[in-house]
């Protein structure tokens, strides 16, 4: 008892001593970067066992499609068509799809050069340092957990239609005494999350095959909805009652920010880079191909929905099933419920694959407890991270209504994609081409500021001169930067895939992400600010000290190994003499 109390006292005093050194440790760790070699080798060794490279290109395309297709079109299309975009919701999908495509190009180049499971966390830590990587990783984890909770609750709604129930809350339990939007307990959603968590703990390859099968059926099901909508719907509904864009261009753009939720998923596929064969060939096909296919299907699906019913009569929830029921197709409505449920299962499977690998790599960096980084030697999966995030997702899905978390997901995602696009420009021009960082940092700052000025001019519609002014500034400084700052490809292998026409694609991605962020509601920024404060506080109280101590231990271990090696060498030399 006395020893235990003494140990606790020693540990507590050691922790307070660490806190007193926070400024010095922040100075050393906050901007500390890793090399690709460290990320590929040293970081992976901290997980114990390696993840198996067992996935082919078609697995990757299917994982990208599975991650995106079930999420957005069934969850957001009805609400956006009814409240923001009207029948022109398909244009909102095109705008969001263009932004996602540009971001996917940035992800692809990073994933080819650094094929590890860390996704945006690893890419940003390599480029901008530990804190920026941690900030992005924490936001991505928030996005995954919240979006998975939201999508699993949507699964319950569509499943009720599959069994002929028109009330989306029929299988939920109302609990009196809890606040509104938190009082409908969703037990089917929690059951689904538990089932998928156990599946993912078993094997990545088997989970990928399950996703491939579900995605094939899902694409066929999409084709059924598109054809049925065009056959049974009417083109008049696209212009009735108030035209193609009843809320104007502003409504179409605001809708694009909300349907961006639909493209969450391709980034989760990039976290599987550590488990794919021939990354330099298969990653570009998988990431870019899945975004392009998804955008086409989303546009056709949204057009089909708006042809079946006028936009002002489309339901916010279970919109496709409601639309078929409205035109008298009850068996189609039941089939839509079943197919949508299957698609949602596929998207959850991929997203939960991705979230566990993000947390695993953050654990390797010692920014969270290291037991979350362990890879099980038998299943070759990040078992602890999968179970932990499964529990978190299930708890949120049990209580929280879909609308509460939608826009918080989008702002976190857009911020991370903005950072990845900026990091690609910095890495290509500064780290790879060895040009002074000052010019690139000035360009990124001025371009981001101009994008913000353009976006705010659009949002508040006060400064009409702001649109041509800031638009012209963005084009001018990008062209000037391209002409004045050289870039080389000397460090890229001949087989490496690179984003073409630099720096225009990532610059356009930066602009679109900033633009879409400014269209979100003030409440989104307030919630995001609260989350940013929380994760920053966690970094100051735990992350920076954990990574500092881990580095000190590794330096000491390397010194011991070096001394041992030198001693053995000297001993051999003496024996030879």
From TrEMBL:
Transmembrane segments: 57-78, 90-110, 131-151, 182-202, 209-230, 285-309, 335-359, 379-399, 408-426, 438-458, 465-484, 504-523
InterPro entries: AA/rel_permease1 (IPR002293), CAT_C (IPR029485)
A matching Pfam family: AA_permease_2
Start and end residues of each Cationic amino acid transporter C-terminal domain: 497-546
Keywords from the named record: Membrane, Transmembrane, Transmembrane helix
GO cellular component terms given for this protein: plasma membrane
Main localization, broad class: membrane
Recorded topology in the membrane: Multi-pass membrane protein
GO molecular function, one term: amino acid transmembrane transporter activity
Subcellular localization, as worded in the UniProt entry: Membrane
Protein family per UniProt: Belongs to the amino acid-polyamine-organocation (APC) superfamily. Cationic amino acid transporter (CAT) (TC 2.A.3.3) family.
Protein name: Cationic amino acid transporter 6, chloroplastic-like
The organism of origin for this protein: Vigna radiata var. radiata
Gene this chain is encoded by: LOC106776612
